[in-house]
Amino acid sequence: MGSDSDAETMSQAAAALDEAGIPYDFTVASAHRSPERAKQIITDAEANGCAVFIAGAGMAAHLPGVVASFTTRPVIGVPLASGAMRGLDSLYAIVQMPPGIPVATVAIDGARNAGILAAQIIGTGNPAIADKLREQRRGMADAVAVKSKKVEKSTR
Questions:
Q1: Which residue did the predictor score with more confidence, 153 or 52?
Q2: Helix (H), strand (E), coil (C) string for 102-153
Q3: CA 34: distance to chain centroid?
Q4: pLDDT tens sequence across 28-72
Q5: Torsion angle defined by CA atoms of residues 27, 92, 115 and 137, in that order, rounded to the nearest 10 degrees
Q6: CA-wise closest residue to 123 among 54, 67, 51
Q7: Angle formed by the axes of helices 127-154 and 7-20, to 10°?
Q8: Considering only Cβ atoms within 10 Å of each terminal Cβ, which end of the chain, N or C, has fewer?
Protein backbone atom coordinates (compact mmCIF):
# COMPACT_ATOMS: atom_id res chain seq x y z
CA MET A 1 0.00 0.00 0.00
CA GLY A 2 1.11 3.54 -0.59
CA SER A 3 0.64 4.76 3.00
CA ASP A 4 0.10 3.39 6.46
CA SER A 5 -3.26 5.16 6.46
CA ASP A 6 -4.36 2.55 3.88
CA ALA A 7 -3.76 -0.37 6.25
CA GLU A 8 -7.28 -0.62 7.62
CA THR A 9 -8.84 -1.02 4.17
CA MET A 10 -6.05 -3.22 2.81
CA SER A 11 -6.33 -5.52 5.82
CA GLN A 12 -9.50 -6.85 4.15
CA ALA A 13 -7.30 -8.34 1.41
CA ALA A 14 -5.10 -9.87 4.09
CA ALA A 15 -8.15 -11.41 5.76
CA ALA A 16 -9.27 -13.00 2.50
CA LEU A 17 -5.79 -14.43 1.95
CA ASP A 18 -5.72 -15.73 5.54
CA GLU A 19 -9.04 -17.50 4.96
CA ALA A 20 -7.60 -19.18 1.86
CA GLY A 21 -4.40 -20.14 3.71
CA ILE A 22 -2.17 -18.02 1.49
CA PRO A 23 0.93 -16.39 3.01
CA TYR A 24 1.64 -12.76 2.13
CA ASP A 25 3.69 -9.70 3.00
CA PHE A 26 1.86 -6.58 4.17
CA THR A 27 3.94 -3.42 3.78
CA VAL A 28 4.10 0.22 2.72
CA ALA A 29 5.97 1.60 -0.27
CA SER A 30 5.15 4.83 -2.04
CA ALA A 31 5.33 5.11 -5.82
CA HIS A 32 6.43 8.73 -5.39
CA ARG A 33 8.17 8.98 -2.03
CA SER A 34 10.04 5.65 -2.04
CA PRO A 35 10.19 4.23 -5.59
CA GLU A 36 13.46 2.39 -4.94
CA ARG A 37 11.91 0.70 -1.90
CA ALA A 38 8.93 -0.34 -4.03
CA LYS A 39 11.25 -1.81 -6.66
CA GLN A 40 13.26 -3.71 -4.03
CA ILE A 41 10.11 -5.13 -2.42
CA ILE A 42 8.94 -6.39 -5.82
CA THR A 43 12.34 -7.90 -6.65
CA ASP A 44 12.56 -9.63 -3.27
CA ALA A 45 8.96 -10.88 -3.45
CA GLU A 46 9.54 -12.42 -6.87
CA ALA A 47 12.72 -14.11 -5.63
CA ASN A 48 10.68 -15.55 -2.73
CA GLY A 49 8.01 -16.99 -5.03
CA CYS A 50 5.33 -14.30 -5.02
CA ALA A 51 2.60 -15.27 -7.48
CA VAL A 52 0.38 -12.16 -7.38
CA PHE A 53 0.78 -8.58 -6.19
CA ILE A 54 -2.02 -6.55 -4.62
CA ALA A 55 -1.37 -2.81 -4.53
CA GLY A 56 -3.69 -0.30 -2.92
CA ALA A 57 -3.39 3.41 -3.54
CA GLY A 58 -5.41 6.56 -3.25
CA MET A 59 -5.51 9.88 -5.08
CA ALA A 60 -2.98 9.73 -7.95
CA ALA A 61 -2.88 5.95 -7.35
CA HIS A 62 0.33 5.25 -9.22
CA LEU A 63 1.53 2.37 -7.02
CA PRO A 64 -0.29 -0.47 -8.83
CA GLY A 65 1.08 0.72 -12.18
CA VAL A 66 4.58 1.09 -10.78
CA VAL A 67 4.37 -2.45 -9.39
CA ALA A 68 3.16 -3.71 -12.78
CA SER A 69 6.03 -1.95 -14.52
CA PHE A 70 8.56 -3.94 -12.47
CA THR A 71 7.00 -7.42 -12.77
CA THR A 72 5.32 -9.77 -15.19
CA ARG A 73 3.32 -11.35 -12.36
CA PRO A 74 -0.38 -10.43 -12.09
CA VAL A 75 -1.04 -7.16 -10.29
CA ILE A 76 -4.38 -6.30 -8.70
CA GLY A 77 -4.99 -2.64 -7.98
CA VAL A 78 -7.23 -1.44 -5.18
CA PRO A 79 -8.38 2.16 -5.65
CA LEU A 80 -8.75 3.68 -2.21
CA ALA A 81 -11.36 6.26 -1.27
CA SER A 82 -9.51 9.46 -0.47
CA GLY A 83 -9.35 13.11 -1.34
CA ALA A 84 -12.04 15.30 -2.85
CA MET A 85 -13.10 12.66 -5.39
CA ARG A 86 -13.46 9.91 -2.75
CA GLY A 87 -11.57 7.34 -4.83
CA LEU A 88 -12.94 8.02 -8.28
CA ASP A 89 -9.60 9.55 -9.29
CA SER A 90 -7.85 6.45 -7.91
CA LEU A 91 -10.14 4.17 -9.88
CA TYR A 92 -9.46 6.02 -13.13
CA ALA A 93 -5.70 6.10 -12.50
CA ILE A 94 -5.51 2.35 -11.88
CA VAL A 95 -7.91 1.11 -14.54
CA GLN A 96 -6.45 3.25 -17.36
CA MET A 97 -3.12 1.48 -17.75
CA PRO A 98 -1.23 1.64 -21.06
CA PRO A 99 -1.15 -1.36 -23.39
CA GLY A 100 1.32 -4.01 -22.23
CA ILE A 101 1.20 -3.12 -18.53
CA PRO A 102 -2.15 -4.47 -17.28
CA VAL A 103 -3.45 -4.05 -13.77
CA ALA A 104 -6.61 -5.89 -12.74
CA THR A 105 -8.75 -3.41 -10.84
CA VAL A 106 -11.39 -3.99 -8.19
CA ALA A 107 -13.98 -1.58 -6.79
CA ILE A 108 -13.09 1.47 -4.74
CA ASP A 109 -12.05 0.11 -1.33
CA GLY A 110 -12.58 -3.41 -2.72
CA ALA A 111 -9.59 -4.92 -0.96
CA ARG A 112 -11.47 -8.07 0.06
CA ASN A 113 -12.25 -8.83 -3.58
CA ALA A 114 -8.59 -8.20 -4.41
CA GLY A 115 -7.61 -10.88 -1.90
CA ILE A 116 -10.20 -13.28 -3.29
CA LEU A 117 -9.09 -12.60 -6.87
CA ALA A 118 -5.48 -13.25 -5.89
CA ALA A 119 -6.58 -16.54 -4.31
CA GLN A 120 -8.46 -17.46 -7.49
CA ILE A 121 -5.36 -16.80 -9.58
CA ILE A 122 -3.23 -18.90 -7.25
CA GLY A 123 -5.98 -21.54 -7.12
CA THR A 124 -5.62 -22.22 -10.85
CA GLY A 125 -2.45 -24.11 -10.01
CA ASN A 126 -3.23 -25.16 -6.45
CA PRO A 127 -6.18 -27.54 -5.96
CA ALA A 128 -6.23 -27.04 -2.17
CA ILE A 129 -6.74 -23.28 -2.59
CA ALA A 130 -9.37 -23.88 -5.28
CA ASP A 131 -11.21 -26.23 -2.90
CA LYS A 132 -11.18 -23.60 -0.13
CA LEU A 133 -12.65 -21.05 -2.52
CA ARG A 134 -15.41 -23.46 -3.58
CA GLU A 135 -16.17 -24.10 0.09
CA GLN A 136 -16.41 -20.35 0.73
CA ARG A 137 -18.82 -19.99 -2.19
CA ARG A 138 -20.99 -22.81 -0.83
CA GLY A 139 -21.00 -21.05 2.54
CA MET A 140 -22.17 -17.81 0.92
CA ALA A 141 -24.94 -19.64 -0.94
CA ASP A 142 -26.04 -21.37 2.28
CA ALA A 143 -26.13 -18.02 4.10
CA VAL A 144 -28.36 -16.55 1.37
CA ALA A 145 -30.73 -19.52 1.65
CA VAL A 146 -31.01 -19.04 5.42
CA LYS A 147 -31.70 -15.32 5.00
CA SER A 148 -34.25 -16.04 2.29
CA LYS A 149 -36.16 -18.44 4.54
CA LYS A 150 -36.19 -15.82 7.29
CA VAL A 151 -37.60 -13.22 4.90
CA GLU A 152 -40.14 -15.65 3.46
CA LYS A 153 -41.41 -16.49 6.96
CA SER A 154 -41.82 -12.82 7.84
CA THR A 155 -44.11 -12.19 4.85
CA ARG A 156 -46.60 -14.96 5.62
A1: 52
A2: CCEECCCCCHHHHHHHHHHHHHCCCHHHHHHHHHHHHHHHHHHHHHHHHHHH
A3: 21
A4: 999 999 999 999 999 999 999 999 999 999 988 899 999 999 999
A5: 170
A6: 51
A7: 110
A8: C
